[in-house]
Design brief:
Layout (H helix, E strand, L loop, with lengths): L2 H20 L5 H4 E8 L6 E2 L1 H14 L4 E4 L8 E3 L2 E11 L23 E13 L2 E9 L1 H7 L10
Parallel strand pairs: 1-7
Antiparallel strand pairs: 1-2, 3-5, 4-5, 5-6, 6-7
Amino acid sequence: MSNTNENNKQVAIEYVNEVWGKGNVDLIDKLMNDKVKLISPLTGPLAGREALKKTIIGLRKSFPEFTSKLISPAIAETVAEGQFVVLRYSSQGKHTGPAYLDVPAGMPKLAQDNTGKQFDLTGIAWLRFEEGRIVEVVEEESALEVLSQLGLVEMKKEV
């Protein structure tokens, strides 16, 4: 694997484990281009580092124990090629903070404080790099399942 691929892979892992997993938003300036774009079912489209920081800070206020990490075996399931890295992750949280209203248009809001409801999701992230920094993140995650776990939508049960 080339040195660039390995460096990009390490940046991607740090993004998931430290930025999302531990809420270390100060790392965003180091890891991401200032015009970074994020597309995710649960956040909607975000543009720029400050928008991402605001989203993570708001999420962690509502879900103080939120965590995110690579799915094990982490390194083996993280693929890097040229300017792209693809990885699998899981995230968990329990709503013990204020209402969470910062959701994409059309998505139901978690309008009550401290519901105690938990969620557990898995996702795949596709990251694009330029000059060793993340410039774009596209995520696909089990958003409908999360909304169901939080009691915001009802899913049909199998018969």
